[in-house]
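Sequence design from tokenized structure. All designs in this work follow the same two-part layout: the structure record, then the generated sequence. An example of the structure record is given first.
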């Protein structure tokens, strides 16, 4: 719809002007800092930062029903800057001018309901939120859209040139960061640092295709992260990992989408999130808290964080029921199919601790839970999901395995509905699916395929033919008739097909 076709009372709110203020706040010393500086940690105490905004003017008085109306009408607006994460502009980054927003088609990914067979296997109804349908095929695009939009705005405001971005990655962050940097090709050059041999071939091809400089080094993600953290503190380079608070802001859009897609009724929803660097679960909780405070939703949904037992420092921290006795300790990770979650020392752990406390307090009861699953459970769940019509990645499998574990543990009950975060596209992890189907996993993964799930191509051999087709060798006449007849017979035999009933 065009702007002049909307009701007059809502029209002035649909295309917002930059307003209000934004600032960094340290989770440690509570110091506040202007966003005019690129900060990743607190200049005073070195603590982790989060971004906060204060709305100005008439927007300060808008409450629940009015916000819902604005978002629902904005959904019909044909205006690119407000099509993605910035549909919820006032709650993401209301200081960024609309002309600085980078939109590549991210966000508003579909909720796909599990069929009855899969629901029966899992135990309760649920949806996959298919984040693999973002432009770079993962949820990271939400954060990158915000981070690169801010960088674009900052560059224009201060007449900056020849900027550089960098990230450490196990695949998804590098693909997303390189893609969004490439869109600003005359302004930004992109570099990514990967743990050598720990990224799938499809994921490695993505930043290379976007023109990024790809650097591989020994170790795992945590080792790469230490290097880029140090680089971002000492050199003029824009960090794109979730230590960058602008990344977290963009990912908060996930929560607003879920609320809107369920007509803002989320009391019975259970949001299941795989945990890697802990930025995404932080963003999701933060987004729902913002929605609650603005009366956009009336009740906070339940949150379940999931980790593989090959990399589960967050789960271990919360496995201690007594908050006074909890102590965070990094872990040494082992080989995992959930590669993006293969992180032993999450950067956003201080954010998680702070926001879990705030989330449960705002809910008036415990609404955050954490479970650990095995690599076998992850792969079994992924294969089962995909055999039932989904395109779940390994992390989607992790979410489904975690949902099943939570149901068995009594953390989820009848009447509740799961919303499972399938963070990336299955094609990024096709090598793991292939290893499962053909029993090809190395021992360190601790994964063996269930016999009924094995699958491999069947070769159709046509031994009785004098000639067979090939590239540049097309059959004709009787040779083509023989090939077709023999092919039909062998395929029917392989599939155990019955002859067509002439009465049908």
């Amino acid at each position: 719809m065009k702007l002049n076709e909307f009701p007059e009372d809502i029209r002035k709110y649909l295309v917002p002007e930059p307003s209000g203020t934004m600032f960094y706040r340290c989770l440690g010393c509570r110091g506040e800092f202007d966003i005019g500086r690129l900060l990743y940690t607190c200049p005073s105490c070195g603590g982790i930062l989060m971004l906060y905004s204060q709305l100005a003017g008439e927007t300060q008085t808008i409450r629940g029903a009015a916000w819902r109306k604005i978002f629902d009408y904005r959904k019909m607006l044909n205006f690119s800057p407000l099509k993605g994460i910035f549909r919820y502009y006032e709650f993401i980054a209301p200081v960024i001018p609309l002309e600085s927003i980078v939109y590549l088609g991210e966000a508003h990914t579909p909720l796909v309901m599990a069929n009855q067979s899969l629901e029966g296997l899992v135990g309760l109804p649920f949806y996959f939120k298919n984040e693999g349908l973002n432009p770079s095929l993962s949820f990271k695009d939400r954060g990158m859209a915000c981070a690169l939009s801010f960088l674009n705005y900052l560059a224009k405001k201060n007449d900056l040139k020849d900027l550089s971005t960098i990230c450490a990655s196990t695949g998804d962050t590098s693909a997303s960061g390189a893609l969004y940097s490439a869109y600003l090709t005359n302004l930004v050059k992109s570099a990514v640092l990967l743990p050598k041999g720990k990224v799938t071939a499809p994921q490695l091809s993505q930043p290379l295709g976007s023109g990024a400089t790809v650097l591989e080094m020994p170790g795992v993600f945590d080792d790469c992260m230490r290097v880029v953290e140090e680089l971002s503190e000492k050199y003029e380079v824009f960090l794109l990992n979730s230590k960058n608070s602008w990344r977290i802001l963009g990912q908060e859009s996930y929560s607003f989408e879920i609320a809107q897609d369920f007509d803002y009724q989320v009391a019975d929803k259970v949001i299941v999130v795989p945990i890697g660097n802990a930025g995404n679960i932080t963003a999701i909780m933060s987004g729902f808290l913002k929605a609650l405070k603005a009366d956009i939703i009336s009740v906070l949904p339940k949150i379940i964080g999931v980790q593989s037992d090959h990399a589960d420092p967050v789960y271990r921290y919360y496995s201690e029921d007594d908050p006074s006795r909890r102590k965070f300790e990094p872990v040494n990770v082992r080989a995992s199919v959930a590669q993006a979650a293969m992180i032993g020392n999450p950067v956003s752990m201080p954010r998680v601790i702070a926001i879990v406390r705030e989330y449960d307090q705002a809910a008036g009861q415990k609404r955050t839970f954490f479970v650990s699953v095995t690599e076998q459970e992850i792969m079994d769940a992924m294969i089962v999901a995909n055999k039932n019509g989904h395109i779940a990645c390994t992390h989607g499998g992790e979410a489904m395995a975690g949902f099943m574990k939570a149901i068995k543990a009594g953390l989820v009950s009848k009447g509740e509905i799961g919303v499972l975060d399938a963070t990336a596209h299955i094609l990024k992890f096709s090598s793991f699916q292939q290893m499962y189907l053909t029993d090809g996993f190395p021992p360190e993964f601790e994964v063996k395929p269930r016999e009924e799930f094995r699958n491999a191509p069947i070769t159709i051999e046509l031994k009785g033919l004098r000639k067979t087709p090939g590239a540049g060798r097309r059959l004709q006449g009787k040779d083509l008739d023989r090939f077709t007849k023999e092919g039909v017979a062998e395929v029917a035999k392989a599939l155990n097909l019955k002859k067509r009933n002439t009465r049908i």
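The first helix runs from residue 8 to 14. We note this feature because it recurs in several other targets discussed in the main text.
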